[in-house]
Amino acid sequence: MKRFAVFALLVALPGGWLAPARAQSPGVAEYARTSREMDKKNAKEQNRKLKKAARKQQKAMKKYAKAQRKAAKKSYRSGR
Question: Does some domain include residue 47?
Fold first, then answer.
């Protein structure tokens, strides 16, 4: 019985040392680095969305111009 108690203590004791006593909070530098990374990521995402919107607008403008040309051509032909 004593052997079992000693063995149990030997097994349980090192387990407590493996766990950290208290987690450290990240410092100011870590927060600043994370903030810079997020800013960069957000800027990249916003730039991508702006480019996509610009392409969509250009496509719409081309479509409108084509429709105007077609309407002008049609009115010119029907006028004769």
Answer: yes
Residue 46 sits in which domain range?
41-80
Q: Is residue 71 part of a domain?
A: yes
Please write the tens of the pLDDT for every residue from 21-37.
667 788 888 999 999 99
Tell me the two tokens of residue 31.
């927060």
Q: DSSP letters of 8-42?
A: HHHHHHHHHHHS-SSPPPP-HHHHHHHHHHHHHHH
Per-residue pLDDT of 31-67, as tens digits, reads: 999 999 999 999 999 999 999 999 999 999 999 999 9
